[in-house]
Specification:
The chain contains three helices and nine strands. A hairpin with a 2-residue loop joins β5 and β6. The protein has an eight-stranded antiparallel beta barrel with strand order 1-3-4-5-6-7-8-9. With about 150 residues, the protein is of the alpha+beta class.
C-alpha cells in the first residue's frame, strides 16, 4: 500500500513538472491580456481610414467572443447578405492579437478566400473595454468594444 501511494505521488509530480507546450507558455502580460479578452464583447465604434485619408464609419451591431483560444464574431448584416459571421482561433503575443479564421458565413468565406484568413491586430484591453486596430494594404480599421459578459 505504501508503495502504491508513493508511486501515485511520484506520477502526479512528474505529470505536473512536464514542460508546457508552446501554445501554453504565455508570458505574464500575455496571460493577463488573454484573461482580460476572455468573454463576450459588443462593438461600440467602427471606423476605417483609407490610404488617401478618407474616413468612414459604420453603425453595425457586431459581437465578438473569445474563449480558450477560440474566437467567434457576427453582426447584423445589411440587406444584401442573409448572414455575416466567422470563427477561428486566436493567440496573443505582447499587445498583438493573432486571429486565424477557419470559416463562417458564405459572404465571409468569399472575403477570406480573396483576402486571406490570418489577421494581425494591435489591441488594447481593459476590464471593460477592448480596442483593436487592423492595418490592411488599402485601409486601417479601428474597432472599439464594451464587455457584455465575462
Amino acid at each position: 500500500m505504501k508503495y502504491s501511494v508513493s508511486l501515485f505521488v511520484l506520477a502526479v509530480i512528474m505529470t505536473n513538472c512536464q514542460p508546457k507546450s508552446p501554445a501554453e507558455q504565455l508570458t505574464g502580460v500575455e496571460e493577463q491580456l488573454r484573461d482580460k479578452l476572455t468573454g463576450a464583447w459588443r462593438m461600440t465604434d467602427y471606423m476605417t481610414i483609407n490610404n488617401e485619408g478618407d474616413t468612414s464609419t459604420d453603425e453595425r451591431v457586431q459581437y465578438k467572443m473569445y474563449v480558450d483560444g477560440s474566437v467567434m464574431w457576427g453582426f447584423e448584416s445589411p440587406e444584401e447578405y442573409t448572414e455575416w459571421f466567422g470563427y477561428g482561433t486566436y493567440y496573443i503575443e505582447g499587445d498583438t492579437l493573432y486571429e486565424t479564421m477557419l470559416s463562417g458565413s458564405w459572404a465571409f468565406r468569399q472575403a477570406i478566400s480573396n483576402e486571406g484568413n490570418f489577421f494581425r491586430i494591435a489591441i488594447d484591453v481593459t476590464d471593460s473595454t477592448y480596442t483593436q486596430i487592423i492595418m490592411g494594404e488599402e485601409e486601417t480599421t479601428y474597432e472599439s468594444y464594451a464587455r457584455i459578459e465575462n
